[in-house]
């Protein structure tokens, strides 16, 4: 496993070394919150993942998300993109976010995080994969968060497609919500709540005088 990115492009995928090369390189980062240090000082690069073998070799030898202490994060981002709002690839983007309820933590947290990582490295977001920057899991006492970051927070059509795929990969039920938040809104928020731009699944308003409205994704006005 390479612990630092190599210069140049990934060598031709001829499988001459019997390894299964990923379409893109991915970097796993780890952060443990510490009020005595800056956020960037707490952020550590764990490994650069170039092959399927790299991924499983790493995953099987680190703590699962459920084993991390409160205030810890994992980030899986494309090589060249740092897991921070200020990065040029993230600054105009946003994130799809779901919160794992405490009562479902044991059965959902590790499964959701693993499924999302495999969907990323396997390029399973067909035709919109280039719009995805990375994924995050935040381990918190009030509720763990699993998120997927995208490049353009205003591209609703693409983000809705990504959101539906994420819901499918995480096997989310209709009772589990997925919200899309703009990074800029989150960075300037004045409370713990950020108004979402998009919601999935959309819950149409009741209208007793008409046929029920079909469920369609809705852009929430800013």
From TrEMBL:
GO molecular function, one term: translation initiation factor activity
Region (Disordered): 193-222
Provenance organism: Panagrellus redivivus (Microworm)
Protein name as it appears in the record: eIF-4F 25 kDa subunit
GO CC list: eukaryotic translation initiation factor 4F complex
Source superkingdom: Eukaryota
Family: Belongs to the eukaryotic initiation factor 4E family.
Record keywords, A-Z: Initiation factor, Protein biosynthesis, RNA-binding
RNA-binding in keyword set: yes
InterPro entries: TIF_eIF4e-like, TIF_eIF_4E, TIF_eIF_4E_CS
């Amino acid at each position: 496993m390479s612990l630092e990115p190599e210069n140049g492009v990934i060598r031709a995928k001829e499988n001459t070394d019997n390894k299964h090369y990923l379409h893109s390189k991915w970097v796993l980062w780890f952060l443990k919150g510490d009020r005595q240090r800056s956020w960037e000082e707490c952020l550590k690069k764990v490994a650069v993942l170039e092959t399927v073998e790299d991924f499983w070799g790493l995953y099987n030898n680190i703590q699962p998300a459920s084993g991390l202490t409160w205030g810890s994060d994992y980030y899986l981002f494309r090589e060249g993109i740092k897991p921070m709002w200020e990065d040029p690839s993230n600054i105009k983007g946003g994130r799809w976010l779901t919160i794992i309820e405490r009562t479902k933590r044991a059965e959902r947290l590790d499964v959701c995080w693993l499924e999302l990582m495999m969907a990323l490295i396997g390029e399973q977001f067909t035709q919109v994969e280039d719009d995805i920057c990375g994924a995050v899991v935040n381990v918190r006492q009030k509720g763990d968060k699993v998120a997927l970051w995208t490049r353009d927070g205003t591209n609703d059509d693409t983000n809705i497609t990504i959101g539906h795929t994420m819901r499918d990969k995480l096997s989310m039920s209709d009772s589990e919500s997925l919200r899309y938040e703009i990074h800029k809104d989150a960075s300037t928020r004045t409370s713990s709540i950020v108004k979402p731009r998009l919601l999935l699944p959309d819950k149409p308003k009741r209208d007793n005088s008409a046929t029920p409205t079909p469920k369609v994704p809705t852009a929430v006005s800013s």
